[in-house]
Design brief:
The complex is a heterodimer of chains A (250) and B (263). Chain A is mainly α and 250 residues long. Chain A is built from ten helices and no strands. Helix content of chain A is 81%, strand content 0%. The two termini of chain A are 40 Å apart. The mean pLDDT of chain A is 90. Chain B has helices at 6-11, 20-42, 51-63, 65-98, 100-114, 122-129, 133-156, 161-169, 174-211, 216-226, 230-258. Classes of the chains: A mainly alpha (250), B mainly alpha (263).
Chain lengths: 250, 263
Amino acid sequence: MDNRGLVRLFQFTFFAAIFGLWYGVTSTGYVSSIFLPELPVLARAFVKLIISGDWISPLQVTLYEVGCAYAISITAGTFIGFLVSRSKFSTRVFEPLFSSIFAIPLIIFYPLAMLFFGLGVGSKIALGATVSFFPIVLNTISGFSNLNPVYTRAASSMGASGFLLFKRVLLPAALPVILTGLRIGFVLCFLSIIGGETLGSLNGLGHKIVFHAESMNTAGMFTYIIFVIIIAFILNTLVLRLERKGAHYR
Amino acid sequence: MSQTSPASSAANMPALFRSPLVARLGVILVFILIWEFGARLYDDPDFLATATQTAASLIPLIQDPKVLSALGYMIVALISGFSMALLSGGILGMLIGVNKLSYRTFFPIIVLIYAIPQVTLLPLFVLTFGIGTAVKIVYGFTHGFFPIIVCVIAGTQNINPVLMTAARSMGASRGQIFRRIVFPFVIPSLFTGMRLGMSATLIGVILAELYASQGGIGYYTRHFSDSFEPQNLFALVILIAAAAIVLNEILRKAETHFSRWRQ
């Protein structure tokens, strides 16, 4: 049953209907341009933003926050995860603890972060590091503790121990699971930092969205929303590539 | 990397500490003690509340009718947003999933829209729906809808096509097919979707609450930080966090309970 052409036609119609509706309601003035900008206006605003280079500084701020937060959560997450996974007992103590904290929408702690670190980059780094710590630590624990015991027994009976055992047996076996945690952690880190910037900040991409929303510059808000979505897709694709590459390194 | 097995190292401890549950409570206790004495040592009552101060302000906080009504509105927004997401996601998901053509047309589109980070759209939602309860419901709904519909559609793909053909050839009506075949097959993934959808709805509602700080929880978090009452802020945050943990545990139990028929 080959209906690929029909499927493509339906999908094309769906998107055409949405953009047609958008064009229709804005150009006739049925929906005010305060809520939805006209498509040509939006396209022009987007091109203007890209050419002007105004996006460079907020992007730098956001990426700086993401970089710092992610460095903290990677270090703490893999280190603590590895230590916890060393015994079955500590895994059974800590794993449920971490996973129930992970179930909390951690953005609720953002007001505390703002109280401690202010409106600047510090509060976003704290939020991003906290949010991304949990998937990383949980996947590190599950990566190291779900090893087939035959591997470690075989390796140690052949005289491998300490660092050699870690490098040749433990790490390669656990790496795919850990890398998935690192990817999920990165995505959550980026999103929570954009969220933090939206809720209260001085600079950054999320701040730009709010700034234009509050000054009723809807076209400006939409251009930054589209810009952030594009950045998010690029970063997602990048970390997914890295994860696949890393998982095949053995 | 010592080769002592976990069992023997655990056997050296007194019997009480061999239970992971007791050890877990111990870890939480140690954390609270570190918080308590760290906060006392740091001694900055404008920004940092101790554990005892936080616990003491918990009772007056939930007795304050205004805070209570803010929490109530948050729960109303959570339940309405979630029910809307569950109903529409469940029904649309089953309708899209049972037909091959609609599945191949709409599933990629749904996954594509799901990949858009909704946090970028928060100011847009507030611009459209104002800062009242409506925006919290709608923003919670759009967060919860996608995990539910994706799980339900994925669940419909597990339906054994032989059953569908058999039912049809034996003259089952559309309603009977949905009730007797599609629905039972979808239930396990529906519950997975419900758990994911509930935590997503909660994230949406809380984000909208914190952004629209004219009323509701967002107002009180800002108010408590601005008026240097960290003990109230800590208590409010911990209250919501605890509620989120309880909610998640209930849905996780329900998920394992209702997926059992498969095994």
